[in-house]
Structure prediction request, 356 residues.
Amino acid sequence: MRCAIVGSGLAALAGYATLRRGGIRPEEIVVFGTHEDPLEVWRERAASIRQQRMRSESDGHLAAAAFPGLALREAARRGNVLALAHTAASTYHPRVEDFVAHGRRVVERSGWSKSFVGRNVASVRAVDGGFELDGDGPFAHVLLATGHPGLERLAGAVHAYEPHDYPSTVAVVGAGMAAATEWLNALAAGSEVVSVRRRPPLRRPLNVPRSFFTKRGLASFHGLGPAARSAMLLDLTQPSYPTGRAWDAPIEAAMREGRFRVEPDVNGYPVIAATGFKRGYRNDPLLADLTAAHEVETHGQWIVLAPDSTVPALTDDRRTLSIAGVAGQWAFPASDTIAGAKYAARAFLRHACRSR
Ligand SMILES: Cc1cc2nc3c(=O)[nH]c(=O)nc-3n(C[C@H](O)[C@H](O)[C@H](O)COP(=O)(O)OP(=O)(O)OC[C@H]3O[C@@H](n4cnc5c(N)ncnc54)[C@H](O)[C@@H]3O)c2cc1C
Prediction:
């Protein structure tokens, strides 16, 4: 077995599809994960906050080849040329149902289920010839795609990314994208909303500016020293949501009707915790174990990675240890997006092919 992927979410699927397109056969790859359906975790979170449209655009798809994007696929399927016009203006956001249907096709065509083994991996150890995973192996090339290390919960509250309904009055704790989405969801459901936040909401077009998706923007990010880089990541990952009437108008109307107000605490109302995820590699048991067992460089809450998302001390001409998903932010600030998953996946494939 030459390649192993640990994890079973969108980043693992993007990694798998990329390896397959690079000519690596299902028999040469094992995927150790907790969910046989790699869309399941994301779908439940998106459904819980009633997400209808993707935050990403046409290129936010899971197929290994960049072309065609989701807009062209929609145009071809539904005869909807408007999708292409929206893409040109960067205003095309695919329907969640179309994204999920596309993801299912990637699962089927890539042969994912032939490589999938249900297992929660507890340890990665560097050995001669690669890495052992819970003592199995060695695997020459390992991609860790374990996702977020759990929801940031509040006692007695339902989390925004778990299935829930909206009571007649609800306190929503948080001030980022999930909180703003929940304010609108609850108002649309007829509820009265009490917004509880530590600071006024930060309004930004995207969590990570577009420049960080370009070669030049990334090169300047990679040129930053550790302190400046972690300060920038902290800033980029502050909770925020976009500007615009679609967000503001329903809140303004609800404030006039007395159905939306800001209060310092939850005052006994039922609570939705729009508090996101736990942060940092120390909260991920596998990554915490890896850094303790090997001399893996870290800075603050991040594992220090090479620009191509590999762990420098454990990667050479014969073996690769890469990190995709949110834990890969040191290499790609928007690592917790589909674009980020593909960034890590493509570099991983280059390493896996190099030692063939
Ligand atoms: C509501 C919501 C909407 C989003 N919308 C978009 C969007 O429109 N566009 C976009 O680009 N991005 C979007 N994102 C961001 C991003 O695409 C997701 O966070 C994505 O799901 C991350 O995938 P992942 O595989 O890294 O992590 P996860 O989805 O968390 O999956 C990780 C998987 O690995 C498993 N696992 C963890 N540890 C182990 C272990 N030790 N052994 C085996 N398996 C393990 C987990 O159980 C899980 O199955 C959205 C995120 C959310 C929450």
About this structure: The pocket of flavin-adenine dinucleotide is lined by residues 6-12, 32-35, 41-42, 45-46, 49, 51, 54-56, 60, 120-121, 145-148, 161, 286, 325, 336-338 (CB under 6 Å). The mean pLDDT is 95. The CA atoms of residues 208 and 236 lie 6 Å apart.
